[in-house]
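Subject: Protein record for review, amino acid sequence with backbone structure tokens
Why sent: The fold of this protein is of interest and is recorded here as tokens.
Notation: Tokens come from a learned vocabulary of local backbone shapes, not from coordinates.
Attached in line: The record itself begins immediately under this heading.
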Amino acid sequence: MILLMALTSIAIVSKPLPEDGTPVGYEVFTGRLFPCNNIESFCNMVRMDSVMATLRYLQNMGPRYAWVDDDSTTPDTDTNVVLNEVRDWLVEKLDAYSYTVTLHHALYHYVDKDPDYGWNVIATRKGTHFPDTWVVVGAHYDTRKETPGIDDNGSGTGALMELARIFQRVNSKYSIALIFFTGEERAFKGSTKLMDSIGSDMDIKVMFNIDQVGGTNKDYSGNPYVSDSIKCEADSSPAGGTANNILSQKYTDTLARATNTYTSIGTVLISRAYGSDYVPFERNGYVITGYYEGFNGSTGSQFAEKVSDTIGNIDATFYHQVIRGSVAYTALMAQCEDVTGSAEGNTIQILNSRTTSVSMRSPSKIDISLIRAGNVVVDLFDIAGKKILTLNLGRQVEGSHLIDPGKALGSKVMIAQVKVNNNVVGKVKMNLVRL
């Protein structure tokens, strides 16, 4: 049972980045992962008609701002009613996808007045292997008072709902929590309240935040513009301690690699995550990363937080690729497993030799997850593509099989190709460092 703690008053800045002279530091990233057929199949499930239906609904609803008058006692009825209607719509959709849905109250509660507003919507699915360890993916569904908020942050809401649709019948080794936050535009009150409830005791593998990712199709002069890269944000703040910073850098590196592998857009690594719903998680010591768009070197679309933040001003092609990247990263972090029963659906994941966490930097073992029994062969190649060894593992039963193909090979970099019933299900680059 979650125990609510007192809300701590903390001064927090929102995007765009304040002009405080703080260096951000950008790095163009070009690395790629070796593609896995299973992850690609999840990415190919993204349907823009489904996503655009969400955006049209949000645009038709208009501003959904969690607001009270200056005296902090009188609710702004119009925007709060819309916020509640969108909340109920999210719950209805998530219920239809068979998630466990929880409403978490985050903003003012009026005992004798309508409406009672300001709720986080949390959709969960338990993992098959690590049910107490969570991959959290979040986006806020509230807006500023004067805007329909399609880029900020209907785009994150649409992406998160598409993840919910895609993963509704997909098993994952780690538990998944999809959180639609309220009150982000009021200094992260929704996510702050949630962290006040949870504290630092929840086992969260990573919190992946999706905020303002629709891109823009026009420059500041109104000329056509093509959005071509997404910012991948890592933690470098002392907030919540610095122990989470190194893991954040690694998981953000994986986010960039997944994006470069499974999408057609580029990535830029930003050294400081700030101004969105991952901040309260960071303050509580959790590992965070996130997506945020860029525009001509600035921190976002010129339409954000304005009346003109509409569907007509986003870059739908760019947005589609961002959702593909979100799907790929979530599938990697949660270790999602296909449930269709096809041989191509079998998955491979790479594991760090010291833990059971996914690692893209120093993997030395392969976890082959079979949805049905099959003959497994692992071919090992050196970095130049020359075959070193073939491991015929024979017929393996359904389930997870952890193998260490480099036991007798010493420390070296190689490529492992896994075949099930003579079908290649994936390749991984392995840095076999003997510990």
Summary: Residues 17 and 59 are 26 Å apart (CA to CA). The first helix runs from residue 37 to 43. The domain at 343-432 is CATH 2.60.40 (Immunoglobulin-like). The radius of gyration is 22 Å.
